[in-house]
Amino acid sequence: MLILKNCRELLTVKEDAKDLIGLMENASVLIKGERIEKIGSYEDLIKFIDGEDFEEIDCSGKVVMPGYVDSHTHLLFGKSRVDEYVASLTNSSVDVKKIVKLVGLEASIYYTKKATNEELLSSSLEKLNRMLLSGTTTVEIKSGYGIDKDTELRQLRLINKLKEKTPQTILSTYLGAHFFDVNMGKEKYIDFMVSEVLPIIYEEKLANFSDIWVDDGYYTAEDADRFLGSCLDFGLVPTLHSECYSAIGGAKVAAKLKAANIGHLNYLTRENASILAKNNVVGIVIPTTDFSVKHPKPFDPSYMIEEGMTLAIATNLNPGNWFESMDLAMALACRNHKMSEKYAIRAATLNGAKALRIEKDFGSIEVGKYADIQIRDSDSYKNVVYKIGVNEVVQVIKKGKKLFK
Ligand SMILES: [Zn+2]
Questions:
Q1: How many folded domains does the chain comprise?
Q2: Do 52 and 75 fall within a single domain?
Q3: Has UniProt tagged this entry with the keyword DNA repair (predicted)?
Q4: Which of 141, 149, 198, 372 could pair with 234 in a Cys bridge, judged by C-beta atoms 3.0 to 4.6 Å apart?
């Protein structure tokens, strides 16, 4: 057993917390095996364990809160796109393609296809390890850098391998519909995914979720309805990238199919926010991408929250948007999008778990849930969004195990 003793601030982030974060001062947490056994005063916990062996961590100068759930990433990819990114920095009118031949998704696909399995695994593990050091204990990872059969399946199989190699909980998503094979055309490419790829994903249990990009120039709402509906037949829970650059009906499809989550939402209307809320579709907002692409229409969480939506914050880590830190994503959500620090903490923990439909076991510090906890050397939880670029995490507990010496 493990006791986190006398936490200066304990943030439970439990479901019914009136202040969103469930702040307790000087409380202690008892962990038995992988799960949280009891929360209370140190004296009560000592009485409760009644002479059994235990280890303790002194948390008197610490903030103790749930590990982060990063519910939207594309972290398994080939080479970085750093040259493209820096070329775009100094002059917004520069034609990046003149400086860097391959850009955008095309570049991500090219470099991912070229990379060996070993390269993809080791670079992904490096990222996951740094994410762990900054408090992220659960990560969703998408395919989508093949737009074919072999690379997409290779990505999903490698994501499954990562599950054995990292302490973090990993969930995987088939994003074959990130774009489409231009030689086949959209219609035929959807048929191809359904007849050629989905049966293998189902057979080998390669993914938890399906995903599609709905926007002008990508897929339509009708395409999404057909593709995600077929994915449901193969046991994949629908999710979407949508309303990032246009509002062409993705949100309504998400509501109709009861998608687990929908990401980006820059162009989401208030009416559709209400429809998503009624259908329990979690909105994933991505402050890092709005920052890195200087989005012309930054997402606005205020009316989404007013309409009753549950919002999660994610990094969207990908080669065009290299963010690993949830602290930073939260700081941007607060400063650039007027989100409160308390909501940001909930959005990065419990609401992330809800976006992945794992909130029964993850996302908060509550009796019965897995002990996925970050311990921060800090005098206030508010530092999470205040001390920019400072990593206060000194210990991470994953399923009851201390990960740092
Ligand atoms: Zn994405």
A1: 2
A2: no
A3: no
A4: 198
